[in-house]
Amino acid sequence: WLPGSSKFWWRTALPEAAMAQAYKRFLPLADRILVQKLKGESKTASGILLPDTAKHEMNQGIVKAIGAGRRNLKGELLPMSTKVGDTVIVPKYGGVEVKLGEEEYNIYRDEDIVGVIKAE
Question: Which among 94, 96, 99 is positioned nearest to 112, based on CA atoms?
């Protein structure tokens, strides 16, 4: 219960701006990477709308947050191979699915990332 309010705190909705930025409160540990998968096309090149069952899942995503990195046997911090904002190729299977706010994200290890797509 919130003082001065008749609503319970767990029943109140978050403002849209807070929900859109919910991933910024998440900090991956060690060599983990938070990725938001790109959505599949909902329309063909000729303009035909596709139903949800006909869309295929994209194996590309945008890196939203990265951990500090993994340590080697000497205790030195190994650098991450990606940075926030990179477009990456992720494996079809694997990773951990999480929902932060209203958006769905996946968590992968740095070594699970297949590649980075560079802008031209």
Answer: 94
